[in-house]
Every structure is written in structure tokens, then in C-alpha cells.
Amino acid sequence: MHVLNCADSGVLVEVEDLGRVLALQAALAEDPIPGVVEVVPAARTVLLRIDPAAPGGPRAVADAVRRLRPSPGGRPAGPEVEIEVHYDGADLADAAALTGMTERELVRAHTAAEWTVAFCGFAPGFGYLVCDDPRLRVPRRGESRTRVPAGSVALAGGFGGVYPRSSPGGWQLIGRTDAVVWDLDRDPPGLLAPGTRVRFHEA
User: Does the reported pTM lie above 0.85?
Assistant: First the structure.
């Protein structure tokens, strides 16, 4: 774990892999550090945004991070969201073939898996979901689409996701949902924040 100051109101923690990011998120949720107002995870980093008025500033937060002992395999226990999916995606057959499962077996695996939002990126409201079933790791498509419809449920590179709006994309589309994952009129606008647990159900 490498701890760096980030300007005068942040601390950036670099770790070896996504598993350690999740474990660090879980440790920070269980034992919050005074002065930290936001935790922003990514694939191999966790940014801690600090209240400028917090006693000790970044140095005190950095020292507290170094004292943490994240549990291996730990995951943040955020709120649970249920999402209904119509499993009729354009890439369902290809994704199933890549996993060695039938289409129905893939659907059963996707709905049985325990998903967690590891971090957000790419577009507002896009959560990178990870699960406990290694069979659901599939590569990106060889060629990206210029337009993926909002609500598309997809897999790629060990992640799952739900497209929050129409956009280009190269993930394998296995289904679609009517759930709105990004809504500026909602507080908060994002349905899938880091740490949120997700359960998919077949519509």
C-alpha cells in the first residue's frame, strides 16, 4: 500500500489490485477516519477527500490509513439494490459460448451471483460490478458499437455493468432493464454507488 498526498485536501492510496481496493473500502466503512468526507475508489486506487478544516490535515489521514489492517477478501457492505433484467441481449449467445455455458445457464449464473459496485466511471452512473463467480469473466467485443441503448446489461473483462444512457460501448450485451440507474432529479442521482450490492432478477 502506497499513501500519497493529493493536493492539500486529499490522500491517494495506491494498492496492488481491485481486491485490495474493495478490502480497503470495507475497512474504511467499518472504521471511518475523522476528517474524511468522501471515499472515491478506482481499479487500483482509493482517493480520500478531506475536510480542509480537519485537524491534522492530510498527514493525520495518511497516518490513520497506514494503521488500517484491511481483511483479505473483505467487501464493503453497502445497501442492496434489485434489478430486473430481460435476458435477450444481442450478445447473449456469444457470451454464453465464451463461458462454456448455455444461455440459460448463463442467466442462472448472472442472477445467482452476488454483485458489488467496485467503483464508478466511464459515464455518470456507470458502476463497475464484480461478483463471486469466475465463470462470468468474458472479454470485450472485438469491435465496439457506436450506440448501446440505455439500460443495457453487459459483461466484459471480469466486470458487469448497466449502461446509464445511450453511448458507444464494447461490452457483451446480455440483457436490458427498465431500471433508471442515473437520474438528475433523484437524490443521489446514481443508483449504483461504490459499495452497493446488486441482485439481478429475470423479468
Answer: yes
In sequence order, the 6+-apart residues with CB closer than 8 A to the CB of 155 are 95, 110, 136, 137, 138, 161, 171, 172, 174
Assess contact for 177 and 153: CB atoms under 8 A.
yes
Q: 148, 136, 149: which is closest to 198 by C-alpha?
A: 136
Q: Which residues contact residue 24 at a Cβ distance below 8 angstroms, ignoring those fewer than 6 apart?
A: 1, 13, 15, 41, 46, 68, 70
State the Cα–Cα distance between residues 48 and 40, nearest whole angstrom. 6
Question: Cell numbers 481496493 correspond to what residue?
Answer: 21
Question: H/E element holding 128?
Answer: strand 127-130
pLDDT in tens, the chain (203 residues): 899 988 888 999 999 999 999 999 999 999 999 999 999 999 999 999 999 888 888 999 999 999 999 988 888 888 999 999 999 999 999 999 999 999 999 999 999 999 999 999 999 999 999 998 999 999 999 999 999 999 999 999 999 999 999 999 999 999 999 999 999 999 999 999 999 999 999 99
Closest CA to 173 of 159, 185, 156: 156
